[in-house]
């Protein structure tokens, strides 16, 4: 297998593990143990207050949050056995890397991303495109800070 293909596969596998880890921890950050609907509602409320969203914009943000949650759940469930971290660790269980398993792992995660991305992109565009210029700038500033400082202290 060509070197750049291997690097690409491992890059995708790493990205899938990161996405799976985020999905696995998304509801558990800072001791969060509630249901995802309640978490989404709190997130929408927090972001809504920071961006000063109106009701229609909050509804679009809610749709985006639901699409993102569905994508996370699909990423976590892709491949049948559930936990992406366990799937990834299993590739290294033997004395040689399970290259066929790694390829399947990457393909499964990539298929989930390909199938769910259009809905997520459409929901993100619908939300962002309906923000005013000042709200859009706040989103850009937030992203420039690496997604930090909209929490309790921002």
| Mean of pLDDT | 78
Give the percentage of residues in beta strands. Answer: under 5%
Q: What is the rounded distance between the termini?
A: 48 Å
Helix content: over 70%
- Count the beta strands: 0
What is the string of helix and strand elements?
HHHHHH
Our Rg estimate from Cα atoms comes to 18 Å
Number of helices: 6
Question: What labels would you give this structure?
Answer:
single chain; mainly alpha; 73% helix; 0% strand; elongated
Descriptive report:
With 154 residues, the protein is mainly α. Helices cover 73% and strands 0% of the residues. The chain contains six helices and no strands. Helix 1 packs across helix 5. The longest helix is centred in the C-terminal third of the chain and has 31 residues. The radius of gyration is 18 Å and the shape is elongated. It starts with a helix and ends in a 10-residue tail after the last helix.
């Amino acid at each position: 297998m060509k070197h750049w293909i291997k690097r690409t596969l491992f890059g995708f596998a790493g990205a899938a593990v990161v996405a799976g880890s985020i999905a696995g921890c998304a509801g558990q950050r800072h001791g969060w143990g509630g249901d995802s609907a309640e978490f989404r509602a709190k997130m929408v409320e927090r972001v809504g207050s920071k961006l000063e969203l109106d009701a229609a914009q909050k509804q679009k943000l809610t749709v985006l949050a639901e699409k993102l949650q569905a994508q996370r759940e699909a990423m976590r469930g892709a491949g049948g056995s559930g936990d992406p971290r366990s799937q990834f660790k299993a590739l290294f269980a033997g004395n040689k890397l399970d290259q066929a398993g790694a390829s399947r792992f990457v393909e499964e995660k990539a298929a989930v991303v390909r199938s769910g991305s259009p809905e997520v992109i459409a929901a993100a565009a619908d939300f962002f495109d309906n923000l005013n210029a000042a709200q859009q700038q706040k989103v850009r500033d937030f992203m420039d800070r690496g997604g930090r400082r909209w929490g309790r202290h921002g």
